[in-house]
Amino acid sequence: MGHNESGDVVVGMPSEKPLLILISHCREMKQQEARLRIITLLLLLSCAALFVFTNCTDLTRAPMAPVSSPAYSAQQNLCPAGDQSTTSTPTTAPSTASPLRIALSSIVESNLTGRPYMNWTVEFGGDNGTYNSDSRAIVIPVTGYYFVYMRFLLHLCETVENGDLKNFRVKLQKWNEGYQQIVDLTEARDSGKCLEERSRTVFMGQLFDLLKGDHLKVLIYEGYELIHRSSFGAFWT
Questions:
Q1: Can you point out the beta strands (E) in 125-210?
Q2: I want to staple 233 with a disulfide (CB 3.0 to 4.6 A). Which of 46, 103, 176, 200 is the partner?
Q3: Could you give the 3-state DSSP secondary structure of residue 51?
């Protein structure tokens, strides 16, 4: 009687195949890693280029000029007769014109009555007709902005030593052939008693928008007899 022997049949797999699969996966992972590195590097380079471009653009861009509105003088500008249709716009003096710089000192005259204009002697400046001794006025040579000042040293006990209140009042006026009228620009007032103080100083300075040909004069409205020494001047700004 014969026996049929049966047994499990084992199908063998070559041992090299799993190793090849593992190597293939490793290669794919390395390729993906390389791609990620390249993408990251490109992103960094793009960011750096954008940063440099932005900074260079800011440095080379020309700054915008500030917008400012011109300051208008508080005084009223009166246009010369014969040009009433247009408004005069102040302009700066041309470079060829010599800027006005003039300083005057007072000539105190005795026995004056009423409201006299101050008489002056030129300390410096006053050339090219910028001081008119007949009208006792500073003459503006070029339209523009000028700083005008006045200073008075008052002696309160110059006449009689008593306790009466002494008043002083001065006005700065301008006149021009164009509008043919005297205009008050500004004024100053002060008062004091001889028993309290023997002398006082009055100073006044202001920036004015003046026209060519304006005559600036100092009118002593009250207290001329109190003036011991004074000065008057103007300069172009």
A1: 131-132, 137-139, 144-155, 165-175, 182-193, 199-210
A2: 103
A3: helix
